From TrEMBL:
Predominant subcellular localization, coarse grouping: membrane
GO cellular component: cytoplasm; membrane
Family membership: Belongs to the peroxisomal membrane protein PXMP2/4 family.
This protein's name: Peroxisomal membrane protein 2
Source organism of the structure: Entomoneis paludosa
Pfam families: Mpv17_PMP22 (PF04117)
ATP-binding recorded as keyword: no
Entry annotated with the keyword Transmembrane: yes
Localization terms from the record: Membrane
Membrane topology of the entry: Multi-pass membrane protein
Source species, domain of life: Eukaryota
UniProtKB keywords: Membrane, Transmembrane, Transmembrane helix
């Protein structure tokens, strides 16, 4: 309660970093890994995005609930509107930011960012919706507002594995 952004950011750093490490494990098992061993720098890049992204999620859910207050019943038009905002506006923009930032952080520059966006954005967005529409509906309808970022971090662990594998296919 005293330092929610620090706690949420630190938690997300480790969740996303561990998610990428698991993604690297999946790549090794599939035989698609281009790296021998563990790419710790890549895991830290994902972790840094979690560290930076958690405060966004904290305020995002705060303002989403401020402008569209939770209702007594879990499944209402308000919940549906929040889901539409979350997956129709926030998710596509955040995904573009994630793909772009990771491309730049791995040294690809603007050309690497454009290349990664062209190669991955639409497939990643569809994969995002397959996981996040049901997960976000559960979050917005049933999860206590103070626990929403923690819930998102748990789902983000799974999403990081999926995204890590998608973005690092040879």
């Amino acid at each position: 309660d005293k330092h929610p952004l620090l706690v949420k950011g630190t938690t997300a750093f480790f969740v996303l970093g561990l998610g990428d490490l698991c993604g690297q494990g999946v790549e090794h098992l599939m035989g698609t890994s281009t790296v021998h061993g563990v790419d710790w720098i890549r895991a830290v890049r994902f972790g840094l995005f979690g560290l930076i992204g958690a405060p966004w999620a904290h305020y995002y859910f705060y303002y989403l609930d401020y402008y569209f207050p939770p209702t007594e019943r879990p499944l209402t038009w308000t919940t549906l509107l929040k889901l539409l905002i979350d997956q129709g506006l926030q998710a596509p923009a955040l995904l573009a930011l994630i793909i772009s930032a990771l491309a730049i952080l791995k040294g690809g520059g603007i050309s690497g960012m454009k290349s990664d966006m062209q190669a991955n954005y639409w497939d990643a967005l569809i994969a995002n919706w397959k996981l996040w529409i049901p997960a976000s509906l559960i979050n917005l309808a049933f999860v206590k507002p103070s626990l929403r970022v923690l819930y998102v971090n748990v789902v983000f662990f799974i999403w990081t594995i999926i995204l890590s594998v998608m973005l690092n296919e040879p």
